[in-house]
Specification:
The complex is a heterodimer of chains A (231) and B (271). By secondary structure, chain A is an all-alpha fold. Helices cover 80% and strands 0% of the residues of chain A. Chain B is built from eleven helices and twelve strands. The longest helix of chain B is centred in the N-terminal third of the chain and has 20 residues, at 2-21. Chain B is globular. Classes of the chains: A mainly alpha (231), B alpha/beta (271). The interface between A and B is large, with 35 and 37 residues.
């Protein structure tokens, strides 16, 4: 382990171009997937919290269950869709960062939807009468409720980020771990483990955890700042 | 204020989406489905820059087991396959998925095992005898179990040894060469590995080579262009250029000049 820590600091200090490229791609893929999943998942989750329709319970259970979707299964589904022999093969997206974003979005979306639904449901129960007295319909209440629950929602989004940045099963299948093109932190760790370079693999793991820690610290700080400013 | 902040957030989000949609550099590239033995040993990192400098064609390697690499080719998700399981390669061509198979190079398989050699494999005269001794002693053996070229070669050796490879001692890991060697080092167990992966493998633990040199351990690699008739999007011209280069004097020299600790890993044998 000592060797791994030394190797981790050595790697960072050297500013190794390949490493920077891998870190950049990992962040780009995961943050984009988080952004897309949030753009879709926040309104969808809020809608699911407020709307009443037949089969709503089944949809809620389905999204809750999908939080447990194995990354390798999500990857396989996207692979079969995007393969040249699959229905979307003409798009030539397999083994590209875009394919990896699609797979990770599928992994994150259920988390964002389910947590948003839970948060918004609670807020609606609390503020329903107040919002109604102000003349807000359920639909009009959505932005207000989302904004009110932003700190809790941020936790849900961070959970989504954690799931995507940590997974290897999906990106390995749809990205192919191509050097300089679709190699991410997690697939590089898998590769170094396969090569028996365990200290380098752990060093990459330490760097990945450092990045995740930094991002969560920023998010937490932003949450505290928003709380302080806006009460 | 909240509305402004929401707009800013939305702006960040859509910026990120746009970033993702930006097209990659417009350089010409081909996708090659190959095996973990070639990629993990560092061979491609050694030879590809030479080819890319000469032609400007970027080669993207997807490293899989031979079975999976051929399946990638069958589905049309690669332009070229570069693998080692001759019978499967010939079937791939016969079925019309590949144009033609060319010999490129070979390396060999070695049997690694715990240095105290509980099954006395070192005394075996032939590879089949070595495996028979392992089965007889019921000494742990870690198998790829993943339909890779190495696994196919291992199954042929068990058949030649005339023993059923099953029982508590036979560990089918269902994973790549490196992962299987990691397992073998921990148990410790015997394992069949290609020499290239072994030479570049760092986590050996108590393992060392216990048997090598039998001709049946010869491990030839073939390269095949995926049929453009079967899959029209295949980059036949660039793919063929890569194959031609591999078979050319320059390509063969590049392969021969790849060494680890002064030891040559792959021996060119084209045409």
């Amino acid at each position: 382990m000592d060797g791994a820590f030394t190797a981790a600091f050595g790697l960072i200090a050297s500013g190794d171009a390949a490493l920077m490229q891998i870190i950049g791609l990992s962040l780009r893929v995961t943050l984009t997937a988080v952004a897309i999943a949030s753009l879709i998942g926040l309104p969808l989750g809020a809608g699911l919290a407020l709307a009443r329709f037949p089969g709503r319970g089944a949809v809620i259970v389905l999204f809750n269950a999908l939080m447990g979707l194995p990354p390798v299964v999500a990857g396989l589904l996207v692979y079969l869709m995007l393969s040249r022999s699959g229905p979307l093969g003409g798009l030539a997206l397999l083994f590209t960062p875009t394919a990896m974003i699609v797979a990770q979005t599928i992994l994150i979306l259920p988390i964002v939807v389910s947590l948003t639904r839970s948060v918004v449901e609670d807020l609606w129960a609390e503020y329903r009468d107040q919002l109604r007295s102000l003349g807000a319909s359920r639909l009009r209440a959505v932005p207000t409720l989302l904004w009110d629950g932003r700190v809790s929602l941020l936790t849900g989004i961070l959970a989504g980020f954690g799931r995507a940045s940590a997974e290897v099963g999906a990106v390995l299948i749809v990205g192919g771990n191509i050097a300089g093109h679709t190699r991410t932190m997690t697939t590089a760790i898998t590769l170094e483990t396969a090569r028996g370079s365990l200290s380098l693999a752990v060093a990459l793991g330490i760097i990945l955890m450092g990045l995740t820690l930094a991002l969560n610290a920023v998010a937490w700080g932003a949450g505290q700042w928003a709380r302080g400013r806006l009460g | 204020m909240p509305i402004l902040r929401r707009a800013v957030l939305l702006g960040f989000a859509s910026g990120a989406v746009l970033l993702a949609a930006l097209p990659a550099a417009a350089q010409e590239f081909i996708t090659v489905a190959s095996t973990t033995s070639t990629e993990n040993s560092g061979l491609f990192a050694h030879i590809l820059p030479v080819f890319e400098d000469k032609t400007g064609i970027e080669v993207r390697i997807v490293a899989q087991g031979t079975g999976q690499a051929l399946e990638t080719g069958r589905r049309g998700d690669a332009d070229v396959v570069f693998v080692h399981a001759r019978a499967q390669e010939e079937q791939f061509v016969t079925e019309g998925y590949g144009v033609q198979r060319f010999d490129v190079m070979y390396n060999d398989f070695v049997l690694v095992g715990p240095s105290d050699d509980p099954a006395a494999v070192r005394e075996a005269a032939a590879a089949a005898d070595a495996l028979a001794a392992i089965a007889e002693a019921e000494a742990p053996f870690a198998s790829r179990g993943d339909d890779s070229g190495t696994h196919v070669a291992e199954m042929a050796l068990w058949a030649a040894a005339g023993v059923e490879a099953e029982g508590e001692w036979y560990l089918s890991t269902g994973s790549g060469m490196g992962a299987t060697l990691n397992t073998a080092a921990q148990v410790p167990a015997y394992a069949l590995t290609d020499r290239g992966t072994w030479l570049s493998f760092e986590n050996r633990g108590p393992l060392e080579i216990v048997f090598e040199g039998d001709e049946v351990l010869f491990n030839p690699y073939g390269v095949i262009l995926v049929s453009p008739e079967r899959h029209q999007h295949v980059k036949a011209e660039a793919g063929q250029a890569f194959i031609d280069w591999l078979l050319s004097e320059a390509g063969q020299e590049a392969i021969a000049s790849f060494t680890i600790n002064g030891e040559q890993l792959f021996f060119p044998n084209a045409g």
